[in-house]
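Protocol step 4 of 6: structure prediction from sequence.
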Amino acid sequence: MYQYKAKIIDVYDGDTVTAVVDLGFLHFQEMKLRLYGINTPELKGEDRDRGLVVRDILRNLILDKEVMIHSYKDKQGKYGRYLATIFLDGLNINNWLVDEGHAVVYMP
């Protein structure tokens, strides 16, 4: 597992964000992250309305915030995203989304 400080700069949907990740020694990298272990409603198709609600909830929670990310692989998945768990002030955001009914557990 890898741990990094990051700032969330975009929330695409309830389980995909873009962050500027602090890699250390003044090196920063913009990365797309897929929230590990969860799935949220999509922005396209019949779940669009719910997907927009969940996206906005996540935006209000973490957009433009400093977070900690735990990444479980050092390579990108099939859509070019790294799998990550996001923590805001110690709160596991991935688990919170599931606990609040905004996401379901998903293990590919």
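Step 5 (inspection) to follow. Residues 48-62 form the longest helix (15 residues).
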